[in-house]
Structures are given as C-alpha cells and as structure tokens.
Amino acid sequence: MAKTIEAIADELGLSITTVRLVLLGKARQYRISAKTEARVREYTELHGYEINHVARSLRLQRSDALALIIPRLSNHFFAQLAELLEIRCRKAGLQLWISCCYDNPDTQQELIKQFRERNVDGLFLVPANANMPALAAAQLKQRLVLLDRDFGGNDYAVVVTDNRQSGYQLAQRLHAFCVQRGDLQPDFLLFAGNSGMPSISQRLVGLNAALDDLGLSASQRREVQVPHNDFHEGEQAMAELIDSGQPLPKVLVCSSIPLFEGAMQALKQRLGGAPENMVLATFDDHSMLDFLRNPVCSVRQDYAFMIEQAFSEMAQLISGEGQPARHIASMRLVPRNMD
Fold first, then answer.
1. pLDDT of amino acid 211
2. For residue 64, is pLDDT > 60?
3. Residue 61 pLDDT more than 70?
4. What is the CATH number of domain 62-160+303-330?
5. Which of 36, 69, 142, 333 is deepest in the core (most CB within 10 A)?
6. What is the pTM of this model?
C-alpha cells in the first residue's frame, strides 16, 4: 500500500518538508544531503507514495482541477471537444470536470457557482448567452476561456472557428457542384438551430453572403429556424416541410450534425430516405456521413488547434502571464460523392 508523505517522514525519522522537497526534485536546491535523498528515493521505490490532494490544495490554493461547461454531449462537436480537452488536461496532470447546461442560462449559472465552490483553477465555457462570460469571470477570478461562441469584447480569452468564412466557402462549393452536374438554378434550404448564438448566426451570414454573390434570387433560398440544434427539432422541421406539401430543395444545409441527423430521420420515415439527387451539407463532420449515397459536404473544425490554444490560454491565466487573446481556428470542407 502506498505511503503518504507524512508516513514516510515518520518512518524515516525525517521532517515532512524534507521528504516533500526530495519528492519534488528540490533536494540539491535546499542542500539536502545525497544520503538523505537516497534514503527517501529507495523507500518510495519500494513502497510507493500518495499525494494528499486536499492538503496540497489548501497549501497551494490550487486544486489542479479545471472545468468545462458545454451545451450537450449528444452534439458530436461538443463531445469531441470535451474528450480531447480532457486528454490534454490529463496529460498535464490536471483533472477536467465536464458538465452540460443544455443552453439553459439558469442551469449554466448554477454550474458556474458549483465549480467556484469546488475551487476549480479555471473554467472553459461555451456561454449560453452574452451575460455568462462576465458572470463566470467574476466568480472564477478571471480564469476563463470561452469556446465556440464569441459575443464580442476583448476582456476574455476566446477560441472560435471562422464560421462566416466557412459558411461562405460551403455555399460556393455546393453551388459549384450543382452547376458542374448541369443544374444551373439550384435552390437552397437552410435549417438553422439556435440562430441567436454567434457561431450559428455567422454561419448564416456567410452562407447568405455567398448566395447573394452567386446571384441566387429569394425564390431560390429558404430558411427554417428552430430553437435548438438537436435531433428532435431537425426531425420535426423536416417532417413539417414534407407534410405541408412544399417541394424538397435541391440543396439542404443544416447548422449542426444533430439537426442534420433529425432531418435525415424524417426523410427516411416519410419518403424512405433523401432523394438521390438531393445535395446534403452540414456544419461539423462525422464518419457516419461516409455511408450516405447522396452528394454530401461537411465542415470539419480544427479540434487540435482549438484545444491547444484554449489550454495555452488557461495556463497563462493561471500563472498570471500575458493578456487574454482571441484565436480563430480554420476549417476544412469535406466533400463526399462530389467528384
């Protein structure tokens, strides 16, 4: 059974401070004899040792724990972000606590309060609204990094994707494919969930800017907005469209994978699947898209860049170095069956 530092000190007849300094690799710095250092090393190699995290936290005013609040784990993008950030934190010897707020501001506010009470060293936050960053920063001693959503201002570290540019490039790529296969007048249907969020609104701005530049008329584009980016709302929106008798679009674009999945489910239930000539597109990417027979284009975000920049910003905030910065990740279009 591993020994505590206190137990090691007692059994070797040394002070707790001496044992701790040896285990921290500071024996030479504090002129602890080589003989004493060797005794401690030999003992811990034989018996092992465990850290009293509570005592360490009280002594250093650090918990070595960070927190992440995201909307939901059922959204593939946030699930991937959470997994990779947890791996990065664990690699640095830190624990990451993950909670979901389901974009409910009251729930998010309560989670922020709970993490403050647990003395986490910092918070990664996908804000539920524009008020959350200031509230969280005040409770977490400004140790706050915002992810995915930028409500403006220069007071906080922010890591986002260039959503406007990604929307613009996606619309151009889809239109070029339609023209390439002989459809010179394609019509677009945009399914947008939670369009009040900066990430979604910028995607729509980019998409519509591209369609404007391509000369698409108002009759060639439709937009359906739903409150959230989830499966059930995508399913309901598509079911209502089909049941209303409106024509299906030649190009369907969804603002998220869950919304896209719901729309595909409704098409399967009502029509047996998406018409084979319908061009499909979604923001974020998933390997399951490989199994669709339709032309599909997705937007893959740069997770590695986002995680590394977010972690670097948090490390600087904790150490008190540098100023919060805004980082913009690039994206990559992933076309399938569009050769």
1. 97
2. yes
3. no
4. 3.40.50.2300
5. 69
6. 0.81
Query: Rounded to whole angstroms, how far apart are CA atoms 281 and 283?
Result: 7
| Nearest in space to 101 (alpha carbons), one of 119, 84, 114, 118 | 114
Other beta carbons within 10 Å of 206: 21
CA-to-CA distance for 95 and 242, rounded, in angstroms?
47
- Count how many Cα atoms sit within 13 Å of the Cα of residue 238 in the half-sphere of its side chain: 28
Q: State mean pLDDT over 232-236.
A: 97
Q: Which CATH number fits domain 3-51: 1.10.260, 1.10.1420, 3.30.530, 1.10.10?
A: 1.10.260
Q: Give the CATH H-level superfamily of domain 163-300.
A: Response regulator (3.40.50.2300)
Distance CA 117, CA 239 (A): 45
Specify the residue for token string 């409910």.
104
Per residue in 112-160, pLDDT (tens digit) is 999 999 889 999 999 999 999 999 999 998 999 999 999 987 789 999 9
Name which of 129, 137, 213 is nearest 168 in CA terms.
213
